[in-house]
Amino acid sequence: MARKSVVSFTSLIELLLILIGISIAAAPIVFANANTLKASYSVENVARPLVKLKRPVVILISSDGFRFGYQFKTPTPNIHRLIRNGTEAETGLIPVFPTLTFPNHYSIVTGLYPAYHGIIANWFTDPNSGETFTKRSQEPHWWLGEPLWQTVVKHGLIAATYFWPGSEVKKGSWNCPPKYCQPFNKKVPFEERVDTVLGYFDLPSDEIPSFMTVYFQDPDSQGHRVGPDHPEITEAVANIDRIIGKLITGLEKRGVFDDVNIIMVGDHGMVGTCDGKFLYLEDLAPWIEIPESWVQSYYPLLAIRPPAGVSPAIVEDFPARLHYSANYRISPIIGLLDEGFMVEQRNLSQRTCAGAHGYDNAYFSMRTIFIGHGPKFAKGRKVPSFENVQIYNMVTSILNIQGASNNGTASFSNFVLLPNR
Ligand SMILES: [Zn+2]
């Protein structure tokens, strides 16, 4: 394509983004940072001593797509027990952009934004090698950074993963040992996942993992199918609460509930897509033709990679607050969709009315939960919302180990955790 065409392509793209309601401008949001955070008053000022366990243990739980606010949909006595006796992000945990499952889960365990940990979407093509990353890709070259299980094992401690994106990737000190690392299988009942984790506490004390992950794919699976306001979500949330109750009871029976640090999070929220906010790239042909082969993904992340020879120069920078640049894997043209919008190549009259996520993390609907419970978390404390890249440092701080460098704020943990005695 001639240079002149390139220029016109670029301006047309901008026009296109404006015309079709896609915003590449920054939306206002307040992000909490270490300087502005002030935890609410708590009578406790030091971590509680361990009674039965010999060393600190963290169980990191993810309930996929647990939108902030779901905890009020129905009685959730077990989740609320953790909230009441623990520390909560009062207005939710802020996911990283794009608010998708793999980028966020991997940010939680590395403390890195997707541009730095390399998992820039759930699905993408590497423009250099032509290889495609999918949710099943386990080759270590995709997965940058140092996830918590690797950090933990590097320090001579034991880590156990009952599912987590990236946990089966053998990298550095982590070789996904069969005793402590479960290959993903969504059919494994949630009860079995919890029973396995509880079983670790029956091992001799030097075999109890210091760090464990547990992952539940609900209520995300229901959210995609029926949207966030359907009774099926309420049911799924009640079920997650029941599973948390099972974990609590099992830990109590073993006399370790008050010794274990439980961090319960989600990866992102969910928004309804029932408002008919549909855009079809084909309808834009009079202004600009975007061949299907250029489009890496449609929604909620519109990622377009034109072929070699077409070099779009976007005049307006993508908002820096999204930290979504400086990685060659990221497509050169990203359409930041307004909340609830869906984009497709053409109108096939297959409109769905359900739920989606992946949008700008400034939207409140994309927020999820953060609850910390255990000896390092003050009881009944509320902290302002923060981004999930802070969690990595929080875990290494609880375990008293030196973490790898990351995008979290080194001192952040001091605002959320109780100091050691
Ligand atoms: Zn998810």
UniProtKB/TrEMBL annotation:
InterPro entries: Alkaline_phosphatase_core_sf, Phosphodiest/P_Trfase. The chain crosses the membrane at residues 12-31. CDD domains: Enpp. GO terms for cellular component: vacuole. Gene3D superfamilies: 3.30.1360.180, Alkaline Phosphatase, subunit A. PANTHER family: BIS(5'-ADENOSYL)-TRIPHOSPHATASE, ECTONUCLEOTIDE PYROPHOSPHATASE/PHOSPHODIESTERASE. This is Uncharacterized protein.
